[in-house]
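Worked Example 4.2. Consider the chain below.
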Amino acid sequence: MQVILTICLSLLFFIGVSSINHQTAYAADQSLQHIKDKGTLVVAISPDYPPYEFESSHKGKDNIVGMDIQVMKKIAKDLGVKLKLKSMAFNNVLVAVETGKADCAIGGINPTAKRRQSVDFSDIYYVGGQSFLINKTDKGKYTGQKSLENKKIGVQTGTLQYQLAKTKIAGASVKGMDKSTDLVLALKTHKIDALGIETPSAEAYVKNDPDLAMIPSGYKLSLNQTGTAIAFKKGSTSLVTAVNKSVKEIKAKKLTSQYLADAGKYMKVNTTNTSMIHYWKYFAEGIEYTLIISAVSVVIGVALGTLLALMRFAKSKFLHAIAIAYIEFVRGTPLMVQVMFVYFGIGIIVNLPALLSGIIAVSLNSGAYVAEIIRGGINSVSKGQTEAASSLGLKRGDMLRYVVLPQALKNIWPALGNEFVSLIKESSIVSIIGVTDLIYQLNIVRADTYRGVMPVFVAMVIYFVLTFILTRILNFYERKMKHAK
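Applying the procedure from the previous section yields the following structure tokens:
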């Protein structure tokens, strides 16, 4: 029974993922009308890729800016709707479009044939080209594609650059990461020899970091591999047609040149003051969301874990089997996958905000581990205690409430406290769906300031302070329980 339930849960997961595209596709003649009816154009972006899209702190205000943002503002204006940006990791932006979380995606996206199988694309609005970032000390050593054979090449996961490095550089060891900021740090610390990147972004890094240089890729590419376009849900013909009118005007008036110039101004503002104190608001917001997610998840996780633990001790074989199946399934799948499934999968039925999705996923995950902790605590209570309570005429429910659980709590408090501390750190995974927690803000600061190490160090100190304070509080209550009669 337990095995069957576990298998059923797994099948439901994969069926849900495979059916996402079919459940959320727009009818071709309704996509444009859908946007006009709701009055907003929701765009999935990854704002850590200057000069395409990045965050800028100017006059006390934080804004997402860049060439692509200007392009989308122009398109939204032409459509007569408001622009709404939805931030997330780059390798999720196309998933967001496919699953209906966003109406379109932008971010230096190359409309390759493989991507066209999953989404529709607008006409190409900008041709940036491909380059490599290298350390300035290696400028004479590396000159292009051929010179990088058998070297370590860094690329952003889910990008065209990843496929190009894999297929066009003989013997290359390709290392993929989610964030371009992580790749730049890997380059500067000599973990990789070169970083495959769009030419405008390479130029942005070189202008703002004297330790870096750029070289041409040397790739022989088609227009689809050098140009960038906007991605839409498959079958959004009327919407794509309307957007292409704006793209045609952008190209005719060469507006991207002006948009790039504007992006350069914001980049200069960002690098005027790159001290971490200047970005304290980013870290403060990250702390706020990290604590919200952790606090709510602790409450829900403990409640769910207690329920699951009691279900495991229930006389009903059905309840017992459900509890075991749930615990085994959750513990057998990565938290990252669970977060993505709640946001992109379950969110199809109910369009859940990123923050709520993150809280739900982290809470459900924590509940499974808390259940095992509580189960161990209950088993640690001597049978003589329950026998004595039974002889006094206590009912099963009262026995658990007044005899077993209070003693079990003392036994499990250290393990439970460790779960609470881990929860603060594990909640960082929600940054992949755009929740502005501490890790998300850390990556934004790194992208804005072109400083790879210091923002990481600041975040590390903040996490230590948070967990240290929580540990001291937990230890205080542990000592009180030990001295309680």
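The longest strand covers residues 40-45. The chain has 20 helices and 15 strands. Compare this with Example 4.1 before moving on.
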